[in-house]
Amino acid sequence: MINTEQSLHACPACGLLCDDISEDAIARQQFSCGKAAKFYARKTVNTPPQINGQPASLAEAVAAAAELLQQAKAPLIAGSSTDVHGARALVSLANQNGAAMTHLNAASTLRNMKVLQHRGWQTTTLTEVRNRADVILMIGTDVVSHNARFFERVVWVEEAMFTEPAARQIIFLGGDKLKTQAGTAPDGRAPQVIACPSEQLPQVVSALRALVMNKPVAGESVAGVAISTLQALAETLKAAKYATLVWVSKDLHYDHAELTIENITETVVALNQKSRAMGLSLGGSDGDTSVNYAHTWLNGVIIDAPDWQEHDAVVWVNSYSPEAMPPAEVSPVIVLGAPDSIFTIPPAVFIPVATPGLDTGGQQFRVDGSVTLPLTAAKPSDVPTLSHVVALIEKALVNEGKSA
User: How far from the centroid of its chain's Cα atoms is residue 256's Cα?
Assistant: First the structure.
């Protein structure tokens, strides 16, 4: 049982932002989520700034970074693994220096954004799913690989306002290697699993949409799935009081995956003609939801995926995943990253920055986009925040411009 006298932390290790993490759990390293355990096990090392792999002062590293950006004709701010405050600082830096901006998850995020821009969609929140959903269809994902506590926090809860949680019907559609154990009901009732090869999921989803719209589908099967099985699934969705169709864009890694997402969201539209249904896009990591929202608010456009060859300098920002780095052929690279960042090749400049939720406080959007939650420093340190470092670089750029 959680000691309510302790401060509770929102965990930024995935998009769920589970806000029930106690100080005792952090101290004892007792978590039901492997991502949370890995995140809170990190220790902030006393790593100095570096220039070409050699220790330097913060002022020297800032000056070196500003000089590289001043010389660049087409700089890129990438990685962008940070929270809302860090994202706002990066947008400011990009606007000052004429840099393009992207995120390490931009490719998968764009799959969703293309559908939202082209057709719009009807999506729900984690709270609504918890309180209303009676049928949950997981499409091409087991979710727990991305959001380990989804079933614990949203599905198999003790109470819900408008449905009986233990009676929910869980259905997995798609990938033939999905981990479906988390979909088992508290009474031992196994989820329904409709398997097909992952690469053939688009055909199956397209057929399901047609059946929901009462359109005929030729043949006896699609990608090894019997049409009668898909017809029964369509009828289950139509009969539901609140059907929820769940996907994770990262798991749909094939060409034109946005068309599959569109088929999912248009199936929701069709269901809402006579019943009630909603979509729910899950996943979310490295602050991608927060960064995309902040970028869109401030610039009016979504974050795009980069063409690395078009840029002659890269600012790589990585607070949450110290092992993630840009392509090896990119040069020069300025890394504003966690103190425990891992380098195969030392960057031109490295400036350690605080990790929100670990070294410092912050603010993060939950993956459903419905709320922002404050992040509290679990292990406060003196490492400068990304916002502070970016402000120093911006000031140095101004000075560089005056002296040019």
Answer: 20
